[in-house]
Amino acid sequence: MSTQDHVLGTPAAYRRVLADRDFRLLWAGSTVSLAGDGMTFVALAWLVLSQPGGTARLGLLTVCFTLPVFAGGLLVGPLLDRFDKRHVLAADCVLRGGAVGSLPLAAAAGEAPAWLPFAVAAVHGLLKMVPLAGFPAAIPDLVRRADLDAANALEALSFGTAGVVGPSLGGLLIAGVGAPHVLAVDAASYLVFAVAALAVRRPLTPGPRAGAATTPTARLPVLLRDRLLVATTLAFMAFNVAEGMLLVVAPWLAKTHLPGGSSALGLLLAALAAGELAGGAVAGLWRPRLDPLRALAFAQLAAGGGFLAVLLAPRPWGVAAGFLAIGLFSAPMTVWAQSLRMERIPGPLRGRAFSALRTLMQATPPLGAALATPILRKEDLALAAASMFLVAAAPVLMLLAPGTRRPPD
Fold first, then answer.
1. Which DSSP string do the residues of 201-257 spell out, in sequence order?
2. What burial class does residue 243 get, using C-beta atoms within 10 Å of its C-beta: 0-12 exposed, 13-18 middle, 19+ buried?
3. What letter does residue 258 receive in the DSSP assignment?
4. CB 174 within 8 A of CB 182
5. How far from 172 is each of 42, 305, 361, 368, CA to CA, in Å?
6. Confidence band of 216 (pLDDT split at 50, 70, 90)
7. Nearest Cα to 80, choosing from 35, 158, 138?
């Protein structure tokens, strides 16, 4: 791709990436599986709510769904670096597909045990990091360096599309065929991803020394000396804290400050998702002429400014414009930062590195939710807006600091 194409933006990069059979197979299988995952939580939550004392048990289900992710993140990385990622992804699909499929099978045989949804959620959470780390770790082996932005944007579009399609389709299917049948659909989506992963022709392993812990380049702590990786990771963790705060502020704002109540909340979340989809699509085609790290910093600053739009309440469309801006500028941050990481992280470390990074990202939104709660108890909208902005935008100074781009020693 020429420099002019990269600056002006054409669909050539997307066409070129999707023309690669192996990438196309893995990406399509991942997208189908992500949409199935979006149905799973809705179906499991519905099953639990149907149990006696279901409302109280819903919190336990959420814990089972999220807490094992952190343990799984520690285990998954070494597997991805030691074994062919095609086989690890396929094994994950078999295990999680079997776990999810056990519920509709038990329901067909009679009545599913009350504990089974919680066990399914725990297995799902424990192995969740396999595709979340495995697919990005495989991307540099499948596409050219010049096409990393387009490939990462396609992954972001998968998340965005699945996040909209999965839960909404799951809700419709539950009403029509029941929650157990929805889980059967998700089990089938795992089969699709497993077949797609095994159909990839190129080996997805960095070579015979991938798991050799005695090799200096295979030691994960070496990445801690890379200032760029550390700075971008801390910046993203801070931004995710702000987004975690937003997930609490948004429903509170819709209930107490915006006309329309739940309809206003739907408008805000739709605006955020629309911004993420649009921003991700643009980021795969275009990057500013600025140094990539500066482009990241200014995108984070612009996204951080979107949090201040909550001060426009009670005007729902003004607040929604801020949510749109958050999504629009945060999606390119994700795409560009992931490309930078792929260029800096050695092949033998990609599985562990992306597993660790994405596990950290999973950990920060709950922290933001916890921070926002006492602020909202005081009903201080200005303090909530200022806190979200400062948490999201302050890391820009770290990204722009001299020496951040210095390679590791």
1. -S--S--TTTT-TTSGGG-GGGGGG-HHHHHHHHHHHHHHHHHHHHHHHHHHHHHHT
2. buried
3. S
4. yes
5. 10, 36, 30, 31
6. very low
7. 138
The Cα angle at residue 381 between residues 237 and 390, in degrees rounded to 5: 30
For residue 364, what is the enclosing H or E element? helix 350-377
Please determine, for residue 219, whether its predicted confidence score (pLDDT) is greater than 70.
no
How many CA atoms, within 13 angstroms, populate the side-chain half-sphere of residue 130?
28
Q: Where are the alpha helices (DSSP H) in 111-178?
A: 116-127, 129-142, 148-177
3-state secondary structure 328-350: HHHHHHHHHHHHHHHHHCCHHHH
Reduced to 3 states, what is the DSSP secondary structure of residue 128? Answer: coil
Mean pLDDT of the chain: 84
Determine the Cα–Cα distance for residues 209 and 97; give it in Å rounded to an integer: 31
Q: Using 50, 70 and 90 to split pLDDT, how confident is the model at 55?
A: low
Q: Which residue has the higher pLDDT, 8 or 365?
A: 365
- Residue 2: the pLDDT is 36
Task: Give the residue-averaged pLDDT of 48-52.
Answer: 80
CA 252 to chain centre: 24
pTM above 0.70, yes or no: yes
Can you say whether residue 226 is alpha, beta or left, with left for phi > 0 and alpha for psi between -120 and 50 degrees?
Answer: beta
